[in-house]
Design brief:
Length: about 375
């Protein structure tokens, strides 16, 4: 038997859950997730940062548009605050000063950053080596995100509005007949005129099942670890510290230090695991920049950040197949952009006016920007 819906959402990570929650208020929506629980892949593996200055200008516009949701979510959305203040501090060595200057020149950053002297940077994060930092920029208004609370909030909204989540449902094929898609899974078949591809690292694979040409969305491995801090160090008020070329970052996390070598290694979509080499690189870079030595590692993991060729997310209907909608390519920014991305996606899917999204460069998010798939190959 095939169940009938208005919209089938594929993938129950933050992208699928957030758009499904928006849509379920006015449509019959089913969300299909291959894993046993939502959030097993990228959504459950992030560094949980909200920053309005992280990512390219398109990402930054989506993040700015998401701010209000994080600070004032709808009543009943979450039992706890979604965000906790945590500055983001960009540091540069002497040879990186031109990069810091170029970054600071971005016009939309002007109201969000202030320059710190190296001494002030060391006061903000006392483990930094005095001879390492030549200049620094601080974003005061960045924050830690409670990703689980955010994700569960969207899933709850979805369920309360009558949406159906089916887990252990791997979408194996997507035939299109008489204006309707059928998502054929091991847990049954689900039919609807509209499909939302929120499959994260598998977005191109899902497109292929639908006979839609891939966009060149490339999963890249990023490694992270939690290390112990020397006793007596109270790190909770430190900002997140990010190398201006994003060669590493570190961030206090519940009494430990989250460290990443900020690697971006292209890999096939999979349940990605950390490599010893990347862990060693992370430790080495942090030892060069700080007074930490041989920190004890409590936990290590890796996750996939999936990028379209121009590193902007893809939100919109495909040009080739009717009713096939992309919500993919969120890269390293899918948490902080989720509220605005979901609202925009739901508006486009309902065919409503996008007048409220004046501050978002919609054309630069649309899959139609890749007018020729050959152009994608030349980016790759
Ligand atoms: C180490 C690391 C640090 C990060 N830090 C940040 C950060 O600080 N801030 C930020 O905003 N972002 C950050 N990110 C990025 C963020 O985690 C991602 O952009 C976001 O989680 C992507 O969400 P998603 O829903 O698209 O993907 P996912 O969470 O991967 O969800 C996609 C889902 O689709 C399902 N699926 C795939 N194929 C099928 C199929 N055929 N049938 C059914 N289901 C299918 C998968 O099982 C998966 O659950 C980080 C990522 C990593 C790895």
């Amino acid at each position: 038997m095939t169940d009938e819906f208005d919209i089938v959402v594929i993938g129950a990570g933050i992208a699928g859950a957030s758009v499904a929650a928006e849509l379920a208020r006015s449509c019959r929506v089913v969300m299909l997730e291959r894993e046993e629980y939502p959030g097993y892949h990228s959504t459950g593996r992030s560094a949980a940062l909200f920053s309005e200055i992280y990512g390219n200008s398109v990402v930054r516009a989506l993040s700015r548009a998401s701010r209000n949701f994080f600070y004032a979510p709808p009543p009943g959305f979450a039992a706890h605050p979604l965000v906790k203040p945590r500055g983001s501090l960009y540091i540069a060595r002497e040879e990186q000063l031109p990069h810091l200057e170029t970054f600071a020149q971005n016009k939309d950053l002007a109201g969000s950053i202030r320059r710190l002297t190296p001494e002030d940077a060391l006061r903000a994060c006392p483990i930094l080596r005095p001879d390492y930092v030549s200049a620094a920029l601080l974003e005061d208004d960045a924050a830690d995100v409670d990703v689980n609370e955010l994700h569960q909030g969207f899933l709850r909204q979805f369920r309360n509005a009558g949406g159906r989540l089916i887990v252990n449902a791997d979408v194996k094929s997507l035939p299109h007949n008489a204006g309707r898609w059928t998502a054929e899974t091991n847990a049954g078949a689900f039919r609807a005129p509209l499909i939302v591809n929120a499959a994260g690292a598998w977005a191109d694979a899902v497109a292929a099942k639908a006979g839609v040409a891939p966009l060149g969305i490339r999963p890249c491995r990023r490694t992270a670890l939690l290390a112990e801090l020397p006793s007596g160090l109270a790190a909770d008020t430190w900002p997140m510290v990010i190398d201006i070329d994003e060669n590493f970052y570190l961030k206090p996390d519940a009494g430990l230090l989250l460290i990443s070598p900020a690697d971006e290694t292209p890999v096939a979509a999979c349940d990605v695991q950390p490599e010893e080499f990347d862990i060693a690189v992370a430790i080495d870079r942090v030892e060069q920049a700080t007074t930490l030595t041989f920190p004890r590692i409590r936990k290590r993991w890796a996750g996939l950040r999936s990028f379209a060729p121009d590193r902007s997310p893809v939100i919109g209907f495909d040009s080739g197949q009717p009713g096939f909608f992309w919500l993919a390519g969120q890269g390293g920014y899918g948490i902080q952009t989720a509220p605005a991305a979901a609202k925009l996606a739901a508006t486009l899917l309902r065919g409503d006016s996008v007048g409220a999204f004046d501050d978002i460069p919609i054309a630069q998010l649309s899959p139609l920007r890749f007018t020729s798939r050959a152009a994608i190959r030349s980016h790759a």
